[in-house]
Automatic annotation (TrEMBL):
Species: Desulfobacter latus
One GO CC annotation: cytoplasm
Record-linked Pfam families: DUF34_NIF3
Protein's UniProt name: GTP cyclohydrolase 1 type 2 homolog
Taxonomic lineage: Bacteria, Pseudomonadati, Thermodesulfobacteriota, Desulfobacteria, Desulfobacterales
Assembly behavior: Homohexamer.
Molecular function via GO: metal ion binding
Similarity section: Belongs to the GTP cyclohydrolase I type 2/NIF3 family.
Sequence positions that bind a divalent metal cation: 65-66, 104, 230, 234
Amino acid sequence: MPTVKQVIDIINQIAPFSLAESWDNSGLQAGDPGWPVSKILIALDVTDKALAEAETLGCDMLITHHPLIMSPEKKIDFSKMPGAAILISAGSRIAVVSAHTNLDKARDGLNDYLAQKLGIVCTNVFIADAMQNESVDQMLGIGRIGRLDGAMTLEQLACRIKEKLGVPRVRIIGNPGNMVSTTALCSGSGGSLTTQFLASGMDVYITGDLKYHEARDIEGHAKSAVDVGHFGSESIAVELLKKRLGRIFEAEKYEIVIHTYDQEQDPFLTI
């Protein structure tokens, strides 16, 4: 039976942890690298409900996109996160592992998968990674630049995104009738890269968490954008990890059962 460390090593093959941003905390969040693994639950976030599901299913590991711990903790309070998760991890022997910005930036990682689902042919990275200077792989970095599989209106693109990602609504910036064919995309929160989008020459920016003044800048430059939301653009990380890990486990003949947590919802509700 493979160990937690061996599974982490496989995740490192898919999305090298060396790609993670300096502020990120991808990797082992809680648990023992030597624990055996026979069942895994994959989720977007480390929540009490996801951990309860992992316990119910008898899982040995919870793999998430978003890390449990993002900044140093001065104390571990078992009554609230992240201490509550650490307590469950220790008591139920469930290792918690996260693949965050390393999965975002890797080749065939989250941004490539997002582009694939939306019918976008990637031609370059949006923001090149510093490692590119040391690597023959030129598709490492934040976001992607590409072209749609055919010109369409902004409204048509928004409707496609809703359908392909299964989200009930998106926000658009620009005239719904604007024709778009080239795009920059960035999963998660990409508002801080608005200036780079405007300099890229692309027609439309697909991302999440755009702010008011960023939207005004895009509007002022006669460009377009689709704000999918943070959850909407990253919830697909669950199915991506299941596919990628499943193929490697099968090739390595690891008898590991993979479950996905399908009860997660966007924390923002519109009323």
